[in-house]
């Protein structure tokens, strides 16, 4: 027999704990990223270049450089500065989990901000006119009309971003975290079974992808029901 | 000295990164065209095969595929060779493994792009080609491909940018690209921030330049096409 799956079977708990860590890192970075993305998207739709430009530069630089470089800048890079090592933040910044979540959150915030800005810009003109005709202030207009509608319409693209982020979290294994990929690397080097170890990791990611796709389908059916083609 | 004398070594790495990206992209284009042809094929099993290729690749992280193909592939090749009675150890070069992996991954993404682009060409175009007495290959290369390029450029641009950035992952399997060189320099000088920032700047230059070139190409292939005015 060329392939050997007995050892993989015995190490399934390691993969299971890895999957839990992957999901934890994924949800923390997505939540943080979304919180950052909303103000950035609002800046990106501003007509004032003073407000728009910094957000444009942020998303351009983040989207133009590899995730791995960003992760290394935060995890290895920041330690170069004495001031960082002396600061209260160091207890967080010396933790691989924290650095990974931070780097992933910054990365996804740039992508989410751009797609949210696109969604804001494609708001039907009539909706804004109607809100103005009702005498809404700018703040009310954003809070009650623009944001709820833009967030909903961004859902299909955001589901893509979430799937990309699931894959991105695998980079956490490079900075020593034992996520799904990390578990596979451990099994691979401990028993020298690279093929079986990584195939198993791939299958787990595939399963998680299918589950996420399913969940987003349900979410779209709920929040985008008004945009669905009419059924006869 | 620029970057404690590591500047030229990192530039060498950058050259390797560019080579890796271009070679992988060529393979990806070939696989993408084959994949698109499969998915548009009237034969059901070919279409299913093309579709499973895309679904499988899109659901598994690039890093896992890289590790799988480099370590797993090497191991598997050797196990099969041993089973066949070949006892010498077969070593896979990281550049070859990198090109194969990247080409294989982005071929799947490009097959999606190409499929959409072929479908965007009006049917009458191919029919007109046939009416002029062209054969299947002639219709494909002379009528469909030049028009498909215009529809494929936005998706292609996106894939090229993602591919360029993903090449950084190949450093994990020991290819001495600019990421690998920067990591070495960072370890030797204890100045990781400086070196990773330099690499980030190089990647940003690469992606910016690509955007400019591809935007020019898009204009070139859209000559004579009127944009919809909104």
Separation, N- and C-terminal Cα atoms of chain A = 55 Å
CATH class of chain B: Mainly Alpha
Question: Average pLDDT value of chain B?
Answer: 89
> What portion of residues of chain A belong to β-strands?
under 5%
CATH architecture of chain A: Orthogonal Bundle
Q: State the CATH superfamily name of chain A.
A: MetI-like
Instruction: Please provide the ordered H/E string of secondary-structure elements of chain B.
Output: HHHHHHHH
pLDDT average of chain A, as an integer?
A: 91
Order of helices and strands of chain A: HHHHHHHHHHHH
Largest interface: A-B, 45 and 44 residues
Structurally, how many domains make up the residues of chain B? 1
Fraction of residues of chain B in helices?
Answer: over 70%
Shape of chain A: flat
Provide the CATH topology of chain B.
MetI-like fold
Quickly give the CATH architecture of chain B: Orthogonal Bundle
Main attributes of the structure:
heterodimer, A: 232 residues, mainly alpha, MetI-like fold, 12 helices, flat, B: 230 residues, 79% helix
């Amino acid at each position: 027999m060329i392939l050997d799956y007995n050892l993989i079977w015995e190490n399934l708990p390691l993969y299971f704990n890895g999957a839990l860590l992957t999901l934890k890192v994924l949800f923390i970075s997505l939540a943080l990223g979304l919180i950052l993305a909303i103000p950035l998207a609002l800046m990106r739709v501003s007509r004032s270049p003073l407000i728009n430009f910094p957000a444009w530069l942020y998303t351009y630089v983040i989207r133009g450089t590899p995730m791995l470089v960003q992760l290394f800048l935060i995890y290895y890079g920041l330690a170069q500065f004495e001031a960082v090592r002396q600061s209260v933040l160091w207890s967080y910044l010396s933790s691989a989990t924290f650095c990974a979540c931070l780097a992933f959150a910054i990365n996804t915030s740039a992508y989410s901000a751009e797609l949210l800005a696109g969604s804001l810009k494609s708001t039907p003109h009539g909706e804004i006119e109607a809100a103005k005709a009702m005498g809404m202030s700018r703040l009310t207009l954003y809070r009650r009309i623009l944001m709820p509608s833009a967030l909903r319409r961004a859902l299909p693209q955001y589901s893509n971003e979430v799937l990309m982020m699931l894959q991105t979290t695998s980079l956490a294994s490079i900075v020593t975290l034992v996520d799904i990929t990390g578990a596979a690397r451990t099994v691979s080097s401990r028993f020298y079974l690279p093929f079986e170890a990584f195939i198993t990791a791939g299958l787990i990611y595939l399963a998680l992808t299918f589950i996420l796709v399913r969940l987003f389908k349900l979410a779209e059916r709920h929040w985008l029901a008004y945009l669905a083609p009419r059924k006869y | 000295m620029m970057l404690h004398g590591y500047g030229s070594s990192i530039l060498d790495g950058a050259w390797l990164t560019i080579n890796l990206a271009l070679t992988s992209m060529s393979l990806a284009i070939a696989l993408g065209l084959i994949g698109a042809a499969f998915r548009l094929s009237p034969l059901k099993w070919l279409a299913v095969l093309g579709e499973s290729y895309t679904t499988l690749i899109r659901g598994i992280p690039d890093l896992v595929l890289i590790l799988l193909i480099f370590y797993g592939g090497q191991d598997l090749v050797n196990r099969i060779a041993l089973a066949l009675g070949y006892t010498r150890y077969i070593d896979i070069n990281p550049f070859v493994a990198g090109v194969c992996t990247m080409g294989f991954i982005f071929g799947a993404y490009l097959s999606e792009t190409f499929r959409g682009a072929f479908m965007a060409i009006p049917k009458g175009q191919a029919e007109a080609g046939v009416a002029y007495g062209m054969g299947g290959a002639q219709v494909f290369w002379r009528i469909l491909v030049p028009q498909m390029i215009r529809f494929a450029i936005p998706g292609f641009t996106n894939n090229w940018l993602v591919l360029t950035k993903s090449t950084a992952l190949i450093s994990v399997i020991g290819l001495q690209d600019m990421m690998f060189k920067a990591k070495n320099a960072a370890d030797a000088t204890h100045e990781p921030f400086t070196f990773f920032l330099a690499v980030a700047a190089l990647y940003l230059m690469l992606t910016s330049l690509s955007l400019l070139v591809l935007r020019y190409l898009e204009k070139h292939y859209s000559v004579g096409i009127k944009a919809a005015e909104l």
